[in-house]
Amino acid sequence: MSLLRIAVQSKGRLYDETMELLSEAGIKLTAVKRTLLVPSRNFPVELLFLRDDDIPDSVASGTADIGIVGLNEVMEKQRNVEIVRPLGFSRCRLSLAIPKNIEYTGLAWFNNRKIATSYPVILDEFLKKNGIKADIHVITGSVEIAPGIGLADAIFDIVSSGSTLVSNNLAEVETVVKSEAVLIAGSKKLSAEKQEVLDELLFRIEAVKAAGDRKYILMNVPKDKLDEVISVLPGIKSPTVLPLADPNWCSVHTVLEEKCFWEIINKIKSAGAEGILVLDIEKMVL
Ligand code: AMP
Q1: Which pLDDT does position 31 carry in this prediction?
Q2: Is the pTM of this model over 0.85?
Q3: Relative to the CA of 91, which ligand 1 atom is closest?
Q4: Residue 131: left (phi > 0), alpha (psi -120 to 50), or beta?
Q5: What is the pLDDT of residue 30?
């Protein structure tokens, strides 16, 4: 049986989170020590470990069937690949930054300036779209030091927390692109066998992601307050209500989205719930 080959980043920011996602999806690898091509021992996939900027090409050329890579690389490389699913991790943005002591007067400031970047294609497209004529200077690493050493007036680079910019006395002035890890596929149709494996993988990723931003909540509620508590619960369908040894009380179980957790929890408490337990959910099949 031919294995679905997934190109993944061999090191760097995306590596850890990609491995974590695959592991949560139940995919175990044969070798702990990383070699270039590693098959799984319990799922019909093999991982091809590459540099991130080689991943779009490997998928477009069919060397790998699918890949997990930053959207920034997909946009920069402009290969013939399709985005199958955004994965929600390694979020960052591609931004223009200038020395912080310079007053920024708007995009026109970049006219006739020199901008250092490792993303010339995305930058060129952005500048053209906005009618700015600047000199793009391509460097592959440590872009943030370019203005400090007189190599450029500004930079166009990846920003995550922004601390790299701060420590190089730079200020972010324009966000051009928001990026995150994405799952990509080539334009060629996969064999039925491989498509089935990809569908199963996507099903598992969906379950991991759905669980990730939800919590399982249990609480004790006096029976006469039950309707009031249920009315503030935005559960999946309807909450589970179980009897307790004390006939005047019951136990209510439900699932909450993490983002509305604090708002809801206060409402539940004021409605009369006690002994509220909050548990992580490992997988969730909707
Ligand atoms: P930060 O100091 O957190 O803003 O991170 C900035 C540096 O980390 C950039 O120069 C990037 O090289 C790198 N970086 C941050 N996030 C990512 C990401 N999602 N993918 C690749 N590189 C990143």
Answers
A1: 72
A2: yes
A3: 19
A4: left
A5: 85
Residue 137: closest CA among 154, 159, 114: 114
Nearest CA to ligand 1 atom 12: 158
Assign 107 to helix, strand or coil: helix
| Letter string b/e over residues 200-211, b meaning 16 or more CB atoms within 10 A of that residue's CB | ebeebbbbbbeb
Residues in the chain: 286
pLDDT mean over 145-152: 97
Side chain identity at 199, as an amino acid letter?
D
Calculate the alpha carbon distances from 273 to 140, 214, 279 in Å: 57, 20, 16
Ligand 1 pocket test: pick from 73, 122, 159, 178 the residue with the most ligand atoms within 8 Å of its Cβ.
Answer: 159
Give nearest CA residue, ligand 1 atom 6: 159
Judge if the beta carbon of residue 152 lies within 6 A of ligand 1. Answer: no
CA of 18 to the centre of ligand 1 (A): 16
Joined together, the tokens standing for residue 125 give 């497209």
User: Are 203 and 210 spatial neighbours (Cβ–Cβ below 8 Å)?
Assistant: no
Which of 92, 94, 145, 166 has the most ligand 1 atoms within 8 A of CB, as the residue to mutate?
92
